[in-house]
Amino acid sequence: MIIPLAQAERETCGGKAGTLGMLARAGFAVPDGFVVPFGVPLDVHGLVGRRPEPGRSDADVPLPTSLVDALARGLRALGDPPVAVRSSAAGEDTALSSAAGQHESFLAVQGPDAVAHAVRTCWASLHSPRATAYRRGSAQDAPEDGASMAVLVQRLVDADASGVLFAPAAPGGTTEIEASWGLGPSVVEGRVTPDSYRVRGDGAVELTVGRKGTRLDRRGPGVVATPVSADDRDRPVLDDTTTRRLAHLGQRVVEALGGAQDVEWALAGETLWILQARPVTADLPSWSPAPAPPAQDPGNGVLTGTPGSRGAANGPARIVRDASDFSRVRPGDILVCPFTDPAWTPLLHVAAGVVTETGGVLSHAAIVARERRIPAVLGVPGATTSIPDGSIVTVDGSSGTVTTGSSTSTPPAPPANT
Q1: What pLDDT sits at residue 31?
Q2: Which stretches does the entry tag as region Disordered (predicted)?
Q3: What are phi and psi for residue 395, nearest 5 degrees?
């Protein structure tokens, strides 16, 4: 009922697990683990549709005892460490659709019961509103009755630093890297503005230091966020030697898999671990180094940030700070928010453009914005307070600028169905 990660194949274990299995067999540093493949249990779709008991969610429906026992055996074989439990869906990590951040993932899970619950929740997330909305607008656009989910269970890497790199398909091309302290969700979920590195084919490194306000680390059976010290906030996460090692690692992944690759990585001690690799689904905007943090002057009507997704859009700003604001977003609005949690994906079907206060060009939100072909400007300090709600703004995702104008007098439209 479970498959060792080193034996995982895309056809039975999904894109994420299948690719990591291939890289493990090729000798890359991939955290050890196992996979619950497609079709286990065989009536998983029946479980999804089963009505849970009052007061319990769909994810609380018990798993078969045989599967729980198999999970316990798999964990014992790993030495019962804290693990990451992650989705590996059939339409995830493909050349057409990344499904970046659309399904549930859990870090620092420990013990068979906790892992069983996390597996069940990953399965349930296959049909969550955000995943369904993503598939509906995806280039792959698979029918719902054909959606399938495997689940990957791996040793958790207690990372000193983590991030994402985009490795080019052509040898000698430029590698883009983003990095922050601690575990990877800080970068991929856009909760910090990470350091950005650009490694040219000749090995030259260009750096923009980001605003790394917080970090995530494992504390027992859980993950905690703590403030980053002032010294570390302004200190580059990576030295030039490690940056070049990452660029070389990215090129090795390209040689193994073919095509430009989006690689999530973690640094623990001297080891660079690969946590995920998938095809790049949309080109990055042009990159140019700039002082960080960018100087802001709301008085002149122009704010600057990181170009996240090409193009320009004009419309009323809609300030969204949490889920309670979702119903205020209307078609054609410019979404202005602290960061974009993956659960906010349905808003990207409605908004004409996106502005965030934190985040980098390799975050999940930026990837989805590029797939949706809507402009995005990321890491604009104070955007939610500097831009008045309802004011007309122009977002230029190629130059990384947000230009504010006058308040709109258009009567409120009915809220969008998000």
Answers
A1: 98
A2: 216-236, 285-316, 389-418
A3: -105, 125
Q: How does pLDDT run across 318-364, given as a tens digit for each residue?
A: 999 988 898 899 999 999 999 877 677 778 888 999 999 999 888 87
**CA proximity to 334, closest of 290, 297, 303, 364:** 303
Neighbour-count burial of 270, counting CB atoms closer than 10 A to its CB (0-12 exposed, 13-18 middle, 19+ buried): exposed
* Active-site residue, 364 included: yes
In this prediction, residue 98 carries a pLDDT of 44
- For helices 10-25 and 240-257, the axis angle rounded to 10 degrees is 130
- CA dist 50 and 390 (Å) reads 43
Domains assigned to the chain: 3-138+147-155 (3.30.1490.20), 161-279 (3.30.470.20), 302-404 (3.50.30.10)
Q: What is the dihedral of CA 350, 352, 358, 364, to 10 degrees?
A: 60
* DSSP state letters, 316-364: EEEE--SGGGGGG--TT-EEEES---GGGGGGGGT-SEEEESS--TTSH
Q: What angle do CA 312, 317, 318 make, to 5 degrees?
A: 125
DSSP 6: G
CA distance 363 to 187: 6
Q: Is the pLDDT reported for residue 43 higher than 80?
A: no
Which residues pair with residue 278 across a beta bridge?
262
Which two tokens mark 352?
Answer: 């004409």
**Helix 112-125 to helix 65-78 angle, to the nearest 10 degrees?**
120
What distance in Å separates the CA atoms of residue 401 and residue 407, rounded to the nearest whole number?
19
Report, as an integer, the average pLDDT of 225-236.
Answer: 94
